[in-house]
Amino acid sequence: QVQLVESGGGLVQAGGSLRLSCAASGRTLSGYTMGWFRQAPGKEREFVGGIRWSGGSTYYADSVKGRFTISRDNAKNTVYLQMNSLKPEDTALYYCAANKLWVVASATAYDGWGPGTQVTVSS
Known about the structure:
This protein has no helices and 11 strands.
């Protein structure tokens, strides 16, 4: 199906920025819904934001709204998560995921996942 690989994670100071990338291969993303999720140790996987490839409509969790922005590059078959004003509570392993449904925020709707990239925000 579709293979996803995240990159761009790292250590950043609170208030700083990072841009995560999710490169897809195996399939074009036309007709897909792409999501970003995160999981901190001891916590459940949490929805961060998503984008419907067709039309580019974006959706965000309240916790990141106004700070994070999702975008896409059709030619590169890649989705980006621009993270600004990072907080220590943003520290987590970040995953991108893909599905062929219109459901965006539910992790159970996604059937393709990347291995994740670590984001650590220091105080």
